[in-house]
């Protein structure tokens, strides 16, 4: 039986770290970082075969944050999991610090792929999964896409390739919060029907509540049992999840919190975080 209470407590800590980091940097992307917390918590604290003391372990599972602007959720998760000292979070987006605005695999322990240009991380994840197949290696590749990100053509080239090469060791989450920097995804560039598109490319498609651990883990179990097809888990989420004034607000896609907003956000999320 998985410890959902423990995972929820970790998720609350990660959310508090996210808003604190972005406030300190005076820039960043809170909305889509907060919406993905349960997904990363499930992966890093239960699902993936990883070792924080040996980040380059050969047979580790890999994770690619394709929507690299959501780096705060990855950094806070890695720090909480023990890949590096939490003190590094205070340097987020600051000159000379380890944690820059987008993940850098050459500087940050636990980051398997540098990402930022939308769609390219997903393509890299497909290549990594193919490499695992060619080596007959046991590890899986997990990736996280944004719903606005799938407006990129490179995503669909990778989608076609992953199905063609039967990459059943590739499990992708789509953070489907419905909003991007310019507003509702259906208004900016409609990507629906998402399920139908991926099915037509030959993928195994599962749709879940992306904040429900039972549904996340059930989907992961199905994905791992699927043979001959990559899996995409379409996770319906809330942008800005957990912060009252951010939830379902496109304006918080890439806005920093001021002092009063940080105080309210931390109250919403259960209290103070770092000093």
Automatic annotation (TrEMBL):
Domain Transketolase N-terminal: 9-270
CDD domains: TPP_TK
Organism expressing this protein natively: Intestinibacter bartlettii
Source organism, top-level taxon: Bacteria
Entry-linked SUPFAM superfamilies: Thiamin diphosphate-binding fold (THDP-binding) (SSF52518)
Family: Belongs to the transketolase family.
Keywords: Thiamine pyrophosphate
Entry protein name: Transketolase
Cofactors that this protein relies on: thiamine diphosphate
Nuclease found in the keyword field: no
Pfam family, one: Transketolase_N
InterPro entries, A to Z: THDP-binding, Transketolase_N
